[in-house]
Amino acid sequence: MKIVLQRVSKAAVEIDGKVHGQINAGFMLLVGASDTDGQEEIKYLVHKISKLRVFSDEDGKMNRSIEDIGGAILSISQFTLFADTRKGNRPSFTGAGNPEHAKQCYEQFNEAMRATGLQVETGEFGADMQVSLVNDGPVTIIFDTDHK
Questions:
Q1: DSSP assignment of 126-144, as one string?
Q2: Of 36, 80, 130, 140, which one is the catalytic site residue?
Q3: Active-site hit among 27, 79, 109, 143
Q4: pTM
Q5: Is 2-147 assigned to CATH 3.50.80.10?
């Protein structure tokens, strides 16, 4: 699985002009899955993200987790994280999981994040979405379970 995490002060996703999910302080996640991803990758990512210390403590150091600040997550499915741009000018997405499997991984990931006690808002798998966010910092971190 691949996840692009951005620390945000707020984020929202709209579908067909209507707000589908929105959060204040926390993480906006772009989530992609391949056909080889499953429970092991989900468990690894949930632990890493829920414990990631990138929020400022009283000394201004990145030493607090999303759990520590009572933050929320906006999770957006994103198959284009698997774009292969090595040849030509049109990316290939053959590395992305087939839609049924990728959707299952995405939904299981979101449920596992919720099981930690965090509020998790989502987009809609496969939908045309408009995502807006205010990246706080900016802080952007990339997770790739092929490189854990």
A1: T--EEEEEEEEEEEEEEEE
A2: 80
A3: 79
A4: 0.95
A5: yes
